[in-house]
Each structure stands twice: as C-alpha cells, then as structure tokens.
Amino acid sequence: MRRTLLIVVVALAAAVAMVSPARAAIDQPVATWQMNEPAGATTMLDSSGNGINGVIGAHVQVGTALSGGGTGYRFP
Residue 48: which domain range? Predict the structure, then answer.
C-alpha cells in the first residue's frame, strides 16, 4: 500500500512539473489591443508591433462611450 502511494505521488509531481508554464516569455506580450476602434470598425488593431490584428464580429459594439471618458467595446 505504501509503495503504491509513493508511486502515485511521484507520478503526480512529475505531471505537475511538465505542465508548469514557461517563465521566459511572461513579460513579452504577443499582441496588445487597445480596443478603442471607432464605431463601425471591423478590425481590432494590434499596437504591439507584431501585426496580430483581430476580426471584430457583428455581435461586438465598438465606439461605445465609457463612463470615464473615451470609447471601448461592448459585448451584449
């Protein structure tokens, strides 16, 4: 019983170690979206310089006035 428990614990520890995220890329974003496109826009522009733009679907409202000023997206 004890040996079986030890094997299970070692196997679980190994599994956790394998799925841990890589720390090297945490502070380097792949894309940055300001989400401030004007009303009627169909493309969300990536301002990171990587050119990973997104398509704005018909269900997303862009150019929505925010309570603190400026505009943003609304997801009804």
Answer: 24-76
- When divided into structural domains, the chain yields a total of 1
The tokens describing 74, both together, are 């609304």
Look at residue 36 and tell me if it is in a domain: yes
pLDDT single digits (tens) 17-29: 555 555 555 678 8
State pLDDT tens for residues 45-74: 999 999 999 999 999 999 999 998 888 999
- Domain membership of residue 31 (yes or no) is yes
Per the CB < 8 A criterion, the answer to whether 56 and 45 are in contact is no
SS (H, E, C) 31-72: CCECCCCCCCCCEECECCCCCCCEECCCCCEEEEECCCCCEE
